[in-house]
Amino acid sequence: MSTSTHDLRHLERALAEHDEPALTPEQYKQVFRRHAAGVAVVTLRDEGRPVGFTATSVISVSAAPPLLAFSLASGSSSWPALSRAATVAVSFLAEGQEDVSTRFATSGVDRFAAGGWTALPSGEPVIDGAQAWVRGRVVQRTPVGDSYLVSLRALAHGVTDAHPLIYRDRVYHRLTRPA
């Protein structure tokens, strides 16, 4: 039995020990579809080729040391590459980059063919025009449910004055400016 299968079974047993009713997957999705989130693209190099995907699950974990995390479904086409990666870049998309988010969320396409990205000296791609980016070293991959929580130690960054791209209820939004 693999470690992730063992961990998943342990989690399922722990959850089953409590008899309180749980949300169905659809009810759970309904809640988080209404939660506004920034949009990021996670990128890396795997066997010399760029790999990337859209993530709305990026969180700040700690400022000292600087840690962030995101989740990715274990069935994602990007998971095999991410499971081997030592470092990744997280580009926080800016308003107007809806097409980038959609491209990196689409399966079966070359997400990098349209350009709009630049490789860092260390090799990870970052999205041009993003409001910010962080390069991080993977410190942990934790199986949780049908996904992995990937924790990173922030190593380098870049920021701009751009405003963030926001995603809520399957629609992209822009922040309104104070009057």
Task: Sum up the structure in keywords.
three-stranded antiparallel β-sheet, 12 strands, NADH-dep_flavin_reductase, 4 helices, 179 residues, Flavin_Rdtase-like_dom, seven-stranded antiparallel β-sheet, alpha+beta, Pnp Oxidase, Chain A, 42% strand
How would you characterize this protein structure?
Keywords: Oxidoreductase. Residues 32-174 form the Flavin reductase like domain. The mean pLDDT is 91. Helix content is 21%, strand content 42%. By secondary structure, the chain is α+β, with helices and mostly antiparallel strands. It has a 7-stranded antiparallel beta sheet with strand order 3-2-6-9-10-5-4. It has a 3-stranded antiparallel beta sheet with strand order 1-11-12, with no helix packed on it. It has a single domain (35-169), classed as Roll (Pnp Oxidase, Chain A). It starts with a helix and ends in a 5-residue tail after the last strand. The chain is globular, with a radius of gyration of 17 Å. It has helices spanning 3-16, 25-33, 79-84, 98-105, and strands at 37-38, 40-46, 49-55, 59-63, 66-73, 87-92, 117-119, 125-127, 132-144, 147-159, 165-168, 171-174.
What's the short story on this structure?
The chain is of the alpha+beta class.
Instruction: Say what oligomer this is.
Output: single chain
Please state the CA-atom Rg, rounded to the nearest Å. Answer: 17 Å
Question: Mind telling me the CATH superfamily name?
Answer: Electron Transport, Fmn-binding Protein, Chain A
What pattern of helices and strands is seen along the backbone?
Answer: HHEEEEEHEHEEEEEE
User: Main beta sheet: strand number and arrangement?
Assistant: 7 strands, antiparallel
CATH class: Mainly Beta
What fraction of the residues are assigned to beta strands by DSSP? 35-45%
- Shape estimate: globular
Strand order of the largest sheet: 3-2-6-9-10-5-4
Unreliable segments (pLDDT under 50, ≥5 consecutive)?
none
Helix fraction, binned, reads 10-25%
**Cα-to-Cα separation, first versus last residue:** 59 Å
State the domain count.
1
Q: State the CATH topology.
A: Pnp Oxidase, Chain A
Number of helices, where a helix is a run of at least 4 consecutive DSSP H or I residues: 4
The counted number of beta strands is 12
